[in-house]
Write a structure and sequence with these properties.
By secondary structure, the chain is α+β, with helices and mostly antiparallel strands. It contains 14 helices and 19 strands.
Length: 493
């Protein structure tokens, strides 16, 4: 494999020979997937969420323990169903020069809550009954039911009311009040931002192929890259002069999802057989260079509402064969499935290994790879049998309603597999109505245990976050959720 990697690198070097060196005034950040949507009212993919954190300020953020803390505003709870938020002094100037007021906050959330607008975030905010802005500094949220976690739901980037009312295309012309402002997007693969504090330009560049990404880093055409790197390239980078590799334990949850409405994946026996056939330890060791840990559920065990008792399905290929035999499948009469994934090379390799592991128990998998936009569009519209994706940046357990509640089918949420279990719905509703965090945590642990039995997802792992940087790049810190907040501080020496 090492010799093959060197040959591939040499070949790519020839292809890159004509590439020009980057302009010295910009820091270039290489990533695998582009941002699908720079409008926070609609963005749901990981890259968009990470970039939108830089462009927009939000009412609330989270501390290191995943508890809500003020960002734009502090809050008071006047009653179990009435919260008042008071805007602070920072982050109050939009990039177009206008001042951020309570009217902008109200307009942003009113838009999301209007079912005619089709925001995918409406479901998670459905407990909001009404919003009032009595003056420019205060916003009152009135809820249909108590929820002690409510402040943690208000993490949507705030837009100017005038742009909302004029139906401005925010995706094409983002205007927020974040630490970085939008400069230009000359093509789908390149996005230029400017850091307000010092006018440093940041180019965020999509380079799909990890080998090309690494070579561009070596040549100085990129200054830093983050994640989506196979094990051999991480090892290669660790040996290169002028490059340093940073690693941080992660909380981003990788999983296999199923279509719960069509055969054969609606069959629990089939889903269990698939989970038992997958050797997660081998994939983590050989493809991820041990830079991940096995997952038992959507929330990591250290999360205040996580369930440490869940470990995920063991690797038991013999039991998988027995389950498949009950449905009439074996090596001579294999079950045939289609597995969709993105065109990122690491995701393709993982899918190929899973394909081989499933073949060994009598499942013939056709791996279908697509560019990110096509792949993500298929997943949101339910055009799949099984697929693999990751949830990133999860902070509060309202994610369970967004992902597993029966009414949260896109565009109302992210129940992409159309999972429908009245017991799960009741557990979600009961947990949300709980009057204390302790009671909520207990309810969500019960829900996680139910999901581990139902298997709408096969939990895979929580990947570490890995960045590779040129030696003259300093100040970039990795976060547990893999966000790009380090771009607010990164500099060139």
């Amino acid at each position: 494999m090492r010799r093959g990697l060197l040959i591939l690198l040499a070949g790519c070097c020839l292809l890159l020979g004509a590439c020009s060196q980057p302009a010295p005034d910009s820091i270039r950040f290489g990533i695998a997937s582009r941002a699908a949507n720079l409008d926070p009212r609609y963005a749901t993919d990981a890259t968009s969420a990470r970039i939108n954190r830089l462009l927009y300020r939000r009412l609330v953020d989270f501390d290191a323990h995943q508890r809500p803390v003020p960002d734009l505003a502090d809050w008071q709870r006047f009653s179990p169903t009435h919260y008042r938020f008071t805007l602070g002094t920072t982050g109050r100037r939009f990039h177009d020069g206008s001042r951020l007021t309570a009217a902008d906050v109200k307009a942003t959330y009113d838009y999301i809550l209007d079912p005619a607008n089709g925001s995918p975030h409406r479901g998670s905010l459905s407990l909001i009954n009404s919003i009032a802005a009595p003056d420019s500094e205060h916003i009152d949220f009135y809820l249909s039911r108590p929820d002690p976690l409510f402040p943690g739901y208000l993490v949507i980037g705030i837009l100017p009311r005038a742009l909302i009312e004029h139906k401005t295309d925010i995706q094409a012309h983002p205007v927020g009040s974040g630490a970085l402002r939008f400069v230009r997007r000359p093509d789908a693969a390149r996005l230029t931002l400017e850091r307000l504090a010092d006018h440093q330009l940041i180019d965020i560049i999509q380079v799909k192929d990890p080998t090309v990404r690494v070579l561009k880093l070596q040549r100085g055409e990129l200054d830093l890259i983050q994640n989506d790197l196979p094990a051999e390239l991480i090892g290669y980078l660790n040996q290169q002069p002028g490059i340093r590799v940073a690693q941080h334990p992660g909380s981003n949850f990788s999983y296999i999802g199923f279509n719960m409405q069509t055969e054969p994946t609606r069959d629990h026996t089939i889903r269990e057989a698939i989970g038992l056939a997958i050797d997660r330890e081998a994939i983590i060791h050989f493809l991820l260079d041990d830079a991940a840990r096995k997952a038992g559920g959507l929330l990591p065990p250290e999360h205040w509402a996580g369930n440490p008792a869940l470990q995920g399905l063991p690797h038991d290929p013999e039991r998988a064969r027995q389950l498949l035999a009950k449905r009439g499948y074996d090596a001579q009469h294999p079950l045939r499935l289609e597995y969709k994934t993105s065109s990122d090379p690491l995701r393709i390799r993982i899918a190929t290994v899973i394909q081989d592991q499933l073949k060994r128990v009598g499942i013939d998998v056709a791996v279908k790879t697509y560019d990110w936009g096509t792949f993500y569009g298929d997943i949101k519209t339910g055009r799949f049998q099984m697929y693999s994706l990751s949830w990133v940046g999860i902070k509060t357990p309202d994610i369970f309603r967004y992902v597993f509640y029966s009414a949260s089918v896109p565009p109302a949420g992210a129940n992409r597999g159309r999972y429908n279990n009245p017991q799960a719905d009741r557990l979600i509703e009961t947990a949300e109505r709980s009057s204390s965090l302790e009671a909520q945590a207990a309810g969500y642990r019960k829900l996680a245990a139910l999901l581990a039995r139902d298997l709408p997802y096969i939990p895979l792992w929580y990947e570490d976050n890995i960045a590779a940087l040129r030696d003259d790049i300093v100040g970039y810190d990795l976060a547990e959720d893999g966000n790009y907040d380090g771009l607010q501080r990164v500099t060139r020496q």
